Amino acid sequence: MSPTATLEARVTSIEKDIAELKDRVFRSDRARPWYETMVGSTKDFPEFDEVVKLGREIRKADAIS
């Protein structure tokens, strides 16, 4: 096999791999808005309820002042 044929085969293989990677990226979670992937992601953390409680307290304090 000539060096040119080998190089062409390698470039063709790389182009195929890049096309596959692009397809994976565009079909991945990135196609969805970021907030849709975040919804519910912390619900099983024990600190979640405390964070919600503190957030409510902060909003209440801001509403009063």
What would you note in describing this structure?
The chain is mostly helical. The chain folds into two domains: about 1-30; about 40-65. Helix content is about 70%, strand content about 0%. The protein starts with a helix and ends with a helix. The mean pLDDT is about 85.
Structural features:
rod-shaped, about 70% helix, mainly alpha, about 0% strand, 2 domains
Strand content: under 5%
Query: Which structural class matches the secondary elements?
Result: mainly alpha
Helix and strand pattern: HHH
Whole-number mean pLDDT: 85
Task: Enumerate the spans where pLDDT stays under 50 for 5 or more consecutive residues.
Answer: none
Q: Count the beta strands.
A: 0
Largest sheet: none
Q: What portion of residues is helical?
A: over 70%
Structural domains: how many:
2
Give a short summary of the structure:
The chain has three helices and no strands.
Summarize the SSE layout with pairings.
Blueprint: H1 3-27, H2 34-38, H3 48-64
